[in-house]
Amino acid sequence: MKKSKKYDAVAEVRKIREELSLKYWGHTELLLKDLKAVRERYAQRLKTIEKH
Q1: What is the CA angle 38-10-4, rounded to 5?
Q2: How far apart are CA 10 and CA 4, in angstroms?
């Protein structure tokens, strides 16, 4: 017996994964560029947190 859920997290993750795979499939340079940008933002946030 299935219960209806207000929010299905597993379905949401699958949807996001599919969208990202379509975006980056065959575009390795775009993936690497985006990962580098995320690393830089994360490093900035860590520095900001460490200052407080």
Answers
A1: 140
A2: 13
Res. 4: pLDDT tops 90: no
> Taking the model in full, what pTM does it have?
0.65
pLDDT tens track for 12-27: 999 999 999 999 999 9
Helix ranges, 1-52 (H): 9-24, 28-51
d(CA 36, CA 30): 10
**N residues, the chain:** 52
Distance CA 42, CA 50 (A): 12
Identify the DSSP state of 1: -
